[in-house]
Design a protein that fits this description.
Elements lengths: L22 E3 H4 L19 H5 L15 E5 L6 E4 L5 E6 L5 E5 L2 E6 L4 E11 L2 E10 L4 E4 L4 E4 L6 E4 L6 E5 L4 E5 L2 E5 L6 E4 L6 E5 L4 E4 L4 E4 L6 E4 L6 E5 L4 E5 L2 E5 L5 E4 L6 E5 L4 E4 L4 E4 L6 E4 L5 E6 L4 E5 L17 E2 L1
């Protein structure tokens, strides 16, 4: 993809690596190595969205599970789990049907059937029937949603307006007019003009935007900037933060994924690379996956046939088994597991 100038990249595991069955080359895993983990539960308890919203817990301070972590939908989308940060340990965060997850530093959103209304995860707690999830309905359907460090944003179904959640009830404030797509991350919110595809940065106040770039195949937001892939997918650029100035940092790519750990991209063959912070400096870290999600300290991958969730080890092209089959993955901060004095901590987390 991106650069062939990075010296010393190992495309395959070396003989000096420990023989640990839970640490596999993601390149090999993508070619069908049997997962050493049971799957995400495919059952679930399908409550209606209204029932989920009525699950309440006592008021009190909330404690994040981690700076950010991976969340996954079960293959049948009848439940969701949060990765607990080590091994193959997960905690259930939803027993309700979910269409899609949207995560970021501000928290986790989910769209739910039957109409696609958007819900925010408030906490996971114990009740007499077991684990319960407090999901609050915060709005109706949207074309897409994005999460930044300071808010939740949505593009209405007709893509004629961008809205920011006010933080209470189902109240949203219009902050922009029409957009074809929105992208969010710790650095902020950007949107594409529906006619020209030009990229605009939201400046933090309703209807205050600044044009920062032209159209692109896709964009990804990290904690320090926004990156774009040209319409022909031949070049990757980083926004310099000034006017409409961008610097080319890579060549051909298929998809970009951003988060607080940084930028990763897949090449035309689907292999995944990590951007090392300087133009044309990239490192191959794995093979193809159905999708990837970047957290604060690493990147997670879902295998091409969606039969396993893996966590990048930080070493070569080695990934650690995190879980079994999933429909999709997303990363999010503020995925709570209860707090002393308000709700019980989640006990005996499920193992995948």
């Amino acid at each position: 993809m991106i650069s062939s100038r990075e010296p010393g990249v190992r495309q395959h595991p070396g003989h000096d690596e420990p023989d640990d069955p839970t640490r596999r080359s993601f390149l090999a895993r993508s070619l069908g190595v049997t997962a050493v983990a049971a799957g995400l539960a495919t059952g679930g308890f399908p409550l209606l969205p209204g029932e989920a919203a009525r699950h309440e817990a006592q008021a009190g301070p909330l404690i994040p599970a981690a700076s950010s972590t991976c969340c996954a939908l079960t293959p049948d989308r009848l439940g969701a789990f949060r990765y607990n940060g080590s091994g193959t340990s997960w905690s259930r965060i939803s027993r309700v049907p979910i269409i899609r997850l949207f995560g970021g530093q501000m928290g986790l959103l989910a769209t739910m059937p039957p109409h696609g209304d958007v819900f925010r995860l408030r906490m996971v707690f114990e009740n007499p029937d077991g684990l319960g999830a407090a999901w609050d309905r915060i709005g109706g359907p949207g074309a897409m949603f994005a999460v930044t460090a300071e808010g939740f944003y949505g593009l209405n179904p007709t893509r004629s307006g961008v809205y920011r959640y006010d933080g209470t009830g189902t109240s949203w404030t219009p902050v922009g007019t029409g957009a074809s797509r929105i992208f969010g991350g710790t650095w902020g919110l950007v949107a594409n003009d529906p006619t020209t595809g030009a990229l605009f940065q939201y400046l933090g106040s309703p209807h205050r935007w600044r044009e920062i770039g032209s159209a692109g195949a896709t964009f990804a937001v990290t904690d320090e900037s926004v990156y774009g892939l040209t319409p022909d997918q031949k070049r990757v650029y980083r926004y310099n933060g000034d006017g409409m100035n961008w610097t080319q940092v890579g060549n051909e790519a298929r998809m970009l994924y951003g988060g607080d750990w940084g930028l990763v991209a897949t090449d035309p063959g689907g292999n995944i690379w990590r951007y090392l912070g300087s133009p044309d400096q990239w490192r191959a870290i794995g093979g193809p996956g159905a999708m990837f999600a970047v957290a604060h300290d690493t990147v997670y991958g879902l295998t091409p046939n969606r039969d396993g969730v893996y966590r990048y080890s930080g070493n070569g092209t080695f990934w650690t088994v995190a879980g079994g089959p999933a429909n999709m993955i997303a990363t999010s901060s503020r995925v709570f597991a209860g707090s002393p004095g308000s709700v019980h901590p989640v006990a005996q987390p499920a193992r995948l």
